[in-house]
Amino acid sequence: MEPIQLTERLGRWSSGRGPLYLLLADRLRRLIDEGELPLGTLLPPDRALAAALAVGRGTVVAAYDLLRLEGRIVRRQGSGTRVAGPVPDAGPETTDAPAFLHLLEPRDGVILLACAAPDAPPPELVEAYQRAVVDLAARRGDIGYHPSGDTVLRQALAEHYTGRGVPTAPEQIVVTNGGQQALSLLARALTRPGEQVLVEAPTYPGALEAFREVLAVPRALPVGLAGFEAAVRDHRPAFAYVIATCQNPTGGMLSGLAGSRLASAAASAGVPLVEDEVLAHLAFPGEDVPPPLAAHAPGVISVGSLSKLVWGGLRVGWVRAPEPLAARLSRLRAVHDIGGNIPAQLAAAHLLPALAALRQRRAAQLKANHDHLRAELAAQLPDWQAPPARGGQVLWVRLPHGDGVSFVQTALRHGVAVLPGSGLDAGGGSREHVRVHFVPSPEELTEAVRRLALAWRAYDQAARSLTAPPQLAV
């Protein structure tokens, strides 16, 4: 393709915010993903495209390198730069994380161990909606648009945090359509294109997607954000994101002392610290749950949701933040959807006082499932390493060899879907891991492990055949 042809297709690619190389890569990415640059298209050389766009050669090189790392282009000495095609993110035969939204919908005959949430609404939710209907019947003079969230729920959430040792005013609460929207709003509010965000490796893949969507660059640190202070000095991040309790996917917990040090270090450095508490209420019975990080520093931003504790279909999440940031998040929220579902928010307000009993019942069930899954893995796949979790819904499993990306394809063909570890690691590691959740019944987990064992035997046999020395002819 001639540089002038590509320039015409790029259009006003540089009109956004952020470094030019990111804007150029974003526009090329769209052209590739939408099919305007078909598979095999020969792209212009660095210097030629840079001259046509009136930018430095380094801008084009950096954009090309980013797309190469994503797998969208291939660069070979002597063969030029060619389009490799869009990164598969919705095909039926992939389970690569974080692009796993297609796995949310059930598929015939496939046991889904990729996306974890309760598989049925509990009786408490039905009762809460019945009470919410009564509340709605009594409402007058309310058009129902509340970008910050319904005042009843905001007040209930403020009391919920205050009861956990974090004094909170309703003005500090912004209600969202689930925890994922909360992360998306925070990413838009706190970052500009090209800025870095400190994250754990591994971490929740949906967070990585939210940050990358606004062209932020996740910078990986060990779980618990070990090395935080040095990373702040070296990279000057826009903010840091941590799952301190029931970490996803390792199931670990940051001790109270470690959490206090992290919160204090973030406050001293002036770096906003976002704590994802979506799984914080799923600690196993008997575990010593540390206080929220916001209890150590008032500027910590907390993200919560009822989707993992109550039901995924209850799209109610929230952000607890300093008032100026909360007001900004409300303005951003209004641009997208004006407000959330008021009946759902009223039901959530009725649920909050009943969370203790629901949490106790669900945590006990998850602990039993966790033990059952680990026992089945030990019996049928003894070479796999599945360390125990202290809470949450998933196991972080290390394979004896190979990589998760290729194994999950084999597993899917055997009727079970799990997530490869590389999609949860912003640093490009964890390729030897897979994430497996233990929400289903013990019977379904037993069948899932049976299928995983069959898949592993097929995968292992194929790997050995590829590495076996050739037979000598006699």
From TrEMBL:
The UniProt record lists the keyword Transferase: yes
InterPro entries attached to this UniProt entry: Aminotransferase_I/II_large (IPR004839), HTH_trans_reg/aminotransferase (IPR051446), PyrdxlP-dep_Trfase (IPR015424), PyrdxlP-dep_Trfase_major (IPR015421), Tscrpt_reg_HTH_GntR (IPR000524), WH-like_DNA-bd_sf (IPR036388), WH_DNA-bd_sf (IPR036390)
Name of the protein: DNA-binding transcriptional regulator, MocR family, contains an aminotransferase domain
Annotated source species: Goodfellowiella coeruleoviolacea
SUPFAM superfamilies: PLP-dependent transferases (SSF53383), Winged helix' DNA-binding domain (SSF46785)
Keywords for the protein's UniProt record, in alphabetical order: Aminotransferase, DNA-binding, Pyridoxal phosphate, Transcription, Transcription regulation, Transferase
Domain HTH gntR-type: 18-86
GO MF annotations, alphabetized: DNA binding; DNA-binding transcription factor activity; pyridoxal phosphate binding; transaminase activity
Similarity section: In the C-terminal section; belongs to the class-I pyridoxal-phosphate-dependent aminotransferase family.
Keyword DNA damage: no
